[in-house]
Give the backbone structure.
Amino acid sequence: MKPHFNRVTIIGVGLLGASLGLAMKARRLAAHVVGVGHRMITLDTALARRAIDEASLDAAAAVKDADLVVLCTPVVRLIGLLDAIRPYCTREAVVTDVGSTKAALCAHAVRTWPTPRRFVGSHPMAGSEKFGPEHADADFYAGSVCLVETGPDLDTAAREVVVALWRAVDARVVDIDPALHDEVLAHTSHLPHVVASALARTAARHGKAPDLVGKGFHDTTRIADSRPEIWSEICLTNREAILAALAECQGNLEQFRAALAAEDGPALERLFEEGRAARRRVIEG
Amino acid sequence: MKPHFNRVTIIGVGLLGASLGLAMKARRLAAHVVGVGHRMITLDTALARRAIDEASLDAAAAVKDADLVVLCTPVVRLIGLLDAIRPYCTREAVVTDVGSTKAALCAHAVRTWPTPRRFVGSHPMAGSEKFGPEHADADFYAGSVCLVETGPDLDTAAREVVVALWRAVDARVVDIDPALHDEVLAHTSHLPHVVASALARTAARHGKAPDLVGKGFHDTTRIADSRPEIWSEICLTNREAILAALAECQGNLEQFRAALAAEDGPALERLFEEGRAARRRVIEG
């Protein structure tokens, strides 16, 4: 069922926040959208794009009458923000977020948010190399997967509202436990960013080499072009799981190094074969 | 100028060899194309596709009257093949190959091939996940870069013929020293295959996770789906350079690990920033 909100407060009006405002307004899901930011120029851009109806520099004031609050700031600010708005949210307000890591945030909410909990963590897996409200798109979330937190302390009705919200902006919702989310994403998203970056840095010693670069290098390093501050923060909020995944990957590279050093063709072939089979299994499900 | 050959012998009629046959015949560059293989079924497919006019199981016999010989076998066989055909090639024959590594092969040719040398190494950077003559395509090389060996002992006219051949099948030719070729490609092609494979193996512990896999994982691991035997052999023929590149990449990953373990946000951000800058420099030239 299509949800409808009287007053939506979106905190953080970058690409994700402004796109959500546009998506909700285009689909008539909200009567009034308030955007919260700390820089007037960003808020002005979001207003000019009609992603929000009203701009505010004060998150506490802006959440007071909201029936939906969506946190769209960088991940490192989410826990502090949740604490800051908690005294001002109404009992009826449904609160969610769009952060790329979930374990620490949702565990914090379990400890601090009133129960049954009406804060329900989300992770829409939509992205772009672009950023800022100037690139907002009403169909930004369309066709993407949105991971939505599961947990015994959640308010069932609030969770249904969050699920309905993402479905209404044309995302496909997948349920996930927050700890498992971070453990799996460490392997399928965070570690690939670390590895792509390390690979790009390794190639840098040759300087300019556009004629010697094929599609393989382009694709393996594409996400090395992501925003450094965003990825530094994502790594810090999923540190343990990424360290474990990285250590495992370092071990896998060391197996390759040893096989190549020993000129062990069958071992190399077996490792490449395992990589191919692993990728197919992970992706094809 | 468009070259023309009376008798072309293509040794190895897989995807690359059969595509070259098709490309030359479609562009009327060859009066007669002989394909050499060691399995009749592959040769029959190449014949059925009209990629070759005649099939042979005997490389020595097939090169005897050829004015152009192109070696299209897996890289590990190229040095042995060069030795095997040398006594049977005419003085006038121009010989080239399509191998992904060049240093060892070209160094061997410098030592063994008559001078001025009419064997000129090539590396067309065209590829596909598909293989076998059944996927051959007359435009397989169109729009790709073909790296062609430079060296003081090369016969100038023979080199011009090789350059003209690749241009005639619509590739763009870039000159390169064979040792530099392998050194750079270790970073821009071979190491990315090793790393993509290690990354895929690291993710495998989670088994099927298609809903938790974004475009980032898809792209960083795409080449992990390449043929294991081909990449094992490429690694073995460029062992020293890949070992050096791999050690460097392992060092870069270790820097990431240390910064993350220390929760050093500025260091992490600096590493991601270096990766982004490095990729742009390498690719954009």
Summary: DSSP finds eleven helices and eight strands in chain A. The two ends of chain A are 29 Å apart (CA to CA). The first strand of chain A starts at residue 5 and ends at 11.
